[in-house]
Design brief:
Elements: H1 2-13, E1 21-25, E2 28-32, E3 49-53, E4 61-62, E5 75-77, E6 85-86, E7 100-102, H2 113-117, E8 122-124, E9 130-132, H3 134-142, E10 155-158, H4 168-173, H5 178-225, H6 227-233
Parallel strand pairs: 2-3, 3-5, 4-6, 5-7, 7-8, 9-10
Antiparallel strand pairs: 1-2
């Protein structure tokens, strides 16, 4: 019975997703799921996989803990998908051993910096419709980007129209700092809010004073209209 359980565990551990092909490279297990019309990351990937290819599919999202049980992973290829959203904990559990992560040629506009900055992997982020802002700038400064593809990280949209269509690295080399721009925008918004609040207070005080003056005038007219007040006046 124990021997049967052992065989069962081995077969489970070495199982291969039905839509993929499992093979070995220099003794390391590789799972090949390229061009299989996948819309999400398979759930039954073997735990001992080292190389995982999920490129050229229709995956739209990388959820939290998508690879957490794959502690031996060294390379993940997610290029040429339709990825739009990456959760903050998408690569939790694989940060230590991951060497290469390819996210190029997707539909990624922004990415939580927490999802990538914990990784030591070489990142490929080219050919995505990036929105150039502070978070992307921080990723570019702190993450390990593939030097061969960094020039292809282009501003599809940006805080200013003049940066659209330009490589992000070129924009930053020109001295642009998206983080300081965001801070200035926040400062301006705070100033406008404070000014509006101050203006409301001034308007309230003016209305309050005028209202009291009108009440005082009405009260004076009322006193003048009293019989005793009229006789005293005569």
């Amino acid at each position: 019975q124990a021997f049967f359980c052992l065989l069962l565990c081995i077969s489970w551990g070495s199982s291969c997703p039905p839509s993929c092909q499992c093979t070995e490279r220099a003794g390391a297990k590789a799972v090949l799921c390229s061009s299989r019309h996948l819309e999400e990351i398979p759930k039954d990937i073997p735990r001992d996989v080292v190389f995982l290819k999920l490129d050229a599919n229709s995956i739209t999202r990388i959820p939290s803990n998508a690879f957490r049980h794959l502690s031996h992973l060294e390379e993940i290829d997610l290029s040429r998908n339709a990825i739009e959203k990456i959760d903050r904990a998408a690569f939790k559990g694989v940060a230590a051993g991951l060497r290469t992560l390819d996210l190029s040629s997707n539909r990624i506009r922004s990415i939580p910096k927490e999802a990538l900055l914990a990784l030591n992997a070489k990142l490929r982020l080219a050919n995505n419709p990036w929105h150039c802002e502070c978070a992307l700038q921080e990723v570019l400064w702190e993450a390990r980007l593939d030097p061969d593809s960094v020039q292809d990280i282009t501003c599809h949209t940006a805080l200013r129209e003049e940066y659209v269509g330009k490589p992000l690295l070129q924009v930053l080399d020109a001295g642009v700092n998206f983080c300081s721009m965001r801070q200035r925008t926040m400062d301006v918004a705070m100033f406008i809010t404070m000014f509006a609040w101050f203006a409301m207070v001034i308007v309230y005080v003016i209305c309050y004073v005028r209202h009291n003056q009108e009440d005082a005038c009405k009260h004076g007219d009322y006193l003048k209209s009293l019989p005793g007040t009229q006789a005293h006046a005569e």
